[in-house]
Design a protein that fits this description.
The chain is mainly alpha-helical and 206 residues long. It has nine helices and no strands. Helix 1 crosses helix 2, helix 5 packs antiparallel against helix 9 and helix 8 runs antiparallel to helix 9.
Amino acid sequence: MQSEPQVARSAILEVALHLARQSSWDAIHLFEIAREMGVPLAEIHRHFPNKDALAEAWLDVADAALLQLPQVPGWRELPQRERLQQAYTTWLDALAPHRELTREMLGYKLQPEHMHLQARGIMRTSDTVQWIREVAMLPEVGWRRELAETVLTTIFLTVVAHWLFDASPHSRRTKALLAQLLNAADLGARLTAGRLRRQPLPAAAS
């Protein structure tokens, strides 16, 4: 008995992106991917239980590129601000070959009937921001960490929203916006730290 053909996750994702570029992300179906690859639909399901899992796999490509940064020689010696800049831009640059499809994927998640995908997207954003913090080796703990996460998440969402529609060469406008936001965040952190240092200690109870 001849065994069913098996394919790798990366091959399925590549075919899905290829088909989507010919039409749109909304228009492709998993059975079309199976037909294009000459494999049973069950083989697609073995790797991807639903269409959104393909979109998540595409975003995983950006996460994987992000996580390679600590292997760059001299990474630890870079200023924290530079590590953050590179972390954000590396994540975006990994998705740049399919920017329009990425926009369509995220738009698909935001459709009113896809509330479950939106909840998953919130968790994914939180996870990605956490990995940006780890890659950039941010040292904050306690309430400072929580504040930093809020700021970094706001920057992430703002920059991604701008990048999705940025037609400038090499996303220059997005990268300029990112630099401005990081500078503002750094200034805010310095001012906050300065105010905290100037606060008088509470008087000891008599």
